[in-house]
Fold these 2 entries.
Entry 1:
Amino acid sequence: MIVRNLQLVRDRMTTACVAAGRSPADVRLLAVSKKFGPEAVISAVEGGQRAFGENYIAEGVEKILALRAWQAAQPQKLDSLLEWHCIGPVQSNKTRLVAEHFDWVQSVDRLKIAQRLSEQRPPHLPPLHICLQVNLDGGTNKSGVTPAELTALVQAVAGLPHVCLRGLMTIPEPAADFEAACALHAKARAVFDQINQSGVLASPMDTLSMGMTADLEAAIHSGSTMVRVGTAIFGSR
Ligand SMILES: *Cc1c(COP(=O)(O)O)cnc(C)c1O
């Protein structure tokens, strides 16, 4: 079921890319496995998926360790390692766990959290990949830096030693239809392009993480480079 669902999501992504005149290679799929157990992740790995998103840190770390043990027990090595993205709120007292176990954090919206993640990243690991969560619609989902505060945060995070600023992440409010969803995502794309073109970064950001089960077509239409999909792969939570 999960393997078939994954294929359906990839087909949706390819169709959306073709419709938008984009290359399917330019949009990555993050499988959001929150609230599903390690067996579900293993099924997705067997279906070829390598990147997974988790919202809840303790649950995510437990799954990361379970999958590491599973991988170690496999007779054949996987063609590539699993990649774990933290996509939920990170409190100060959880930064160490995140820095020690995850590969990416997409939900950074304060400098203090980014500083702690950089300080606590173990030296034997590569830099932690960071996306800044931006709140563009001021919606009830209150996490996320405002566009007005974004440039200063981008500059500060880009200067930290043990993290690598990769891009922006947004979770827009649900939209009424395709056009409305595209308009919201286009706003995020405009902010992303504006920062990249402003010259504040030595190297441009390459990741615009937006689009979920309900709106991945609109997100891809508007320039997403990574969609985060849970329900359409693993079922409803
Ligand atoms: C749960 C979640 C998703 C996946 O949502 P679906 O609608 O199940 O695809 C994506 N991004 C974030 C930040 C989430 O919390």
Note: DSSP finds nine helices and eight strands in the chain.
Entry 2:
Amino acid sequence: MRSRLPKVLFLAVLIALSLYVFEKWTSTLPSIPSHPQPSEVYRLISPSSYKYLLNQPDLCKNRKPFLVLLIPVTGYDSESRDAIRKTWGQENLIPDFDIARLFFIGQLRERDLKFEEDLLKESTTYGDIIQMDFLDTYHNLTIKTMMIMNWMASYCRSARYAMKIDADIFLNVPYLVKYLQSKAEHNFITGSVITDGRPRRDPNSKWFLSKQLYSENLFPPYVSGAGYVFSADLAKKISMASKFVRPIPMEDVYVGLCLHFLNIRPQFAWKLWPYRNLFEVRHLDYDRCVFAKRIIVTGFTSTQLVNMWTDLKNAAFSC
Ligand SMILES: *[C@@H]1O[C@H](CO)[C@@H](O)[C@H](O)[C@H]1NC(C)=O
């Protein structure tokens, strides 16, 4: 009897191929809007709807930062701010490369005078806090990201690169600075690129997105919000695009939609030998020589960050 294996294999390949074609064929991206959104829709994310409670308008005066670290945090998060100031956000970390650091905070639901006083003190001491008067919630992160873009476009046009990065992340600054030296200075954005993101239609999901807000079944390529790096010129372009692109409560997908509007593709940051994604959005247990060759790794407490940092200082010489 002849083997049936070739036939079975052929069928399997045929089925896989048709599924692939079917999926591609039925996946659609939004068309590029040609008109700005109605003003009552744009108002939600428009910078002119909110005012600064704390600002650092002179941070970039008389200086040209190579990189500005833009860190969304909530007000009560002073412990993670302290950890960042002592680790990857510290000043003068890399000789000859000016790196600036800024925390972005919204407003509490209810006024808390003690909190306001502490935050003002912290802002005076470190000069690294920006606060605006929108409610600081998970669903308002798109607003926060647009405020970050607008701040860069308004007050720090001299910078070369910017990075939006969450507070619970390990950032290998020396590796990043070296990596960026060979990268484009315009229309450049990199991070952990997601090319097959789709909206969740289950109303119980944390990432639920209604068809009304987003009717297509595929997202354009976007970079995970955990941490992404972009040439500073993009801040203004993304702010401009946001006038056309309807807001959705997922800030990283929203930035992807703005990039789609601008016809800019986020760049992968992969390296071979060994293969790795330099923006690691899975959690990895700390290992000195693994972390020495990543730009970010996600998911650490402040204490872990401080401990890892102390250890990693020696890594450059031993890995
Ligand atoms: C977002 O912020 C605005 C302005 O403060 C507020 O009115 C709204 O309730 C917030 N939305 C959510 C979902 O928290």
Note: Residues 38-318 form a domain with the Spore Coat Polysaccharide Biosynthesis Protein SpsA; Chain A fold (CATH 3.90.550.50).
